[in-house]
Amino acid sequence: GLSQYSSDPRTEWDLSAYSTREQVLEAVRNLRYKGGNTFTGLALTHVLEQNLKPDAGARLEAEKLVILLTDGKSQDDANLAAQTLKNLGIEIFAIGVKNADEAELRQVASEPLELTVYNVLDFPLLSSLVGKLTRVLCTRIKERSHKETADTPVNTGPQLSPTDLKISAVTSKSMHLAWSPPLRPPNKYRVVYYPSKGGTPKEVVLEGAVSSLQLSNLTSHTEYLVSVIPVYDTALGDGLRGVTSTLPLSSPRSLRVSELSHNSLRLSWKAAQGATHYLVLCSAAPDGAED
C-alpha cells in the first residue's frame, strides 16, 4: 500500500489493490509526485486510520510495517503519531533524503535504529538502499511472525467496533462526541481530531469504559475531521469517523447611525455574544457613493 502526503495525506493504493510484483511496479511508475508541506504526523495518523484497516486490505494476523520516506523536517508532531503506531506493535522504518532531520528520523523509527533509520543526500542515491532494506524488512517480518500472538482477535466487526457516532452541542469552539461501545469493550479509545484543510492532529486517549468526550478550544468556523478508534491488546477495531464544522463567531447586528454633525456621528448596535472588544473602522466614502 502507498500513501503520499503534504498537508493533506492521500492514499494512492491500498494493501488489497495489487496482487503481483509487476502490478505494484507499474503503479509506482505511474505515480505523480505530490509537492507541498511536510505534515508527517498527520500522514502517520492517516496511515493508521485509513490504510491499516481490514477494509483496506490489512490482515490482523500479518505483521504491520510502515516505511516513511521524507525529504524535510515535519511541520507537526511526528513523534506523537509515531509513538501511537509503535505502541500498537507497528514497526516504522524512516528514510530521509536531502533536508530530512536526522534527529526526527531517529525519534520516529522503531528500535534498533541501526536497522530502521537511513539517510541519503539525494533521491538517486535511494537505489543504493534497496538491497539492504529488502533483506532487513524480510528478516524482521520472519522474526516477528514467529512470536506468539494467541490473544490476537480473529476479526473486527461488531465485536470490536463502536457504532453510531453522534456529534452534538456544536458551538464556535466546542463540540460533544458520543458513541455506542462495541460488544467487547476495548482497553482504550484514541480520539483524533484536526481541521480538514490541514493542521496538527490532536489526540485524546480515553479508558475503554468511557463512550463520550467534550472537545474544547477549537477554532471557530472550521471543518473538523474526528476519528474514534478502539484499541485492544494486539489489535485495533474499526474506527468511527465524522465531519462537523464549528459555528462562526457571532456578529454584531442592527448597526444604527445617529446624532450626525459636521464632524461626528454616533454608532449603536446589538451586541455580539461573547465579544470582549469591538474594532470600529471608519473611512470616507468615494465621491458619488451612497452616504
TrEMBL record:
Q: Any idea where the Fibronectin type-III domain is?
A: 161-250
Major subcellular site: secreted
Q: Output the PROSITE patterns linked to this UniProt entry.
A: FN3, VWFA
Report the superkingdom from the record: Eukaryota
Question: Which keywords does UniProt give here?
Answer: Extracellular matrix, Secreted
Q: Where is the VWFA domain?
A: 1-133
Subcellular localization is given as: Secreted, Extracellular space, Extracellular matrix
InterPro entries for the chain: ECM_Assembly_Org, FN3_dom, FN3_sf, Ig-like_fold, VWF_A, vWFA_dom_sf
PANTHER family in the cross-refs: COLLAGEN ALPHA, COLLAGEN ALPHA-1(XX) CHAIN
What protein name is recorded for this chain? Answer: COKA1 protein
Q: What species was this sequence derived from?
A: Ptilorrhoa leucosticta
Designated gene of the protein: Col20a1
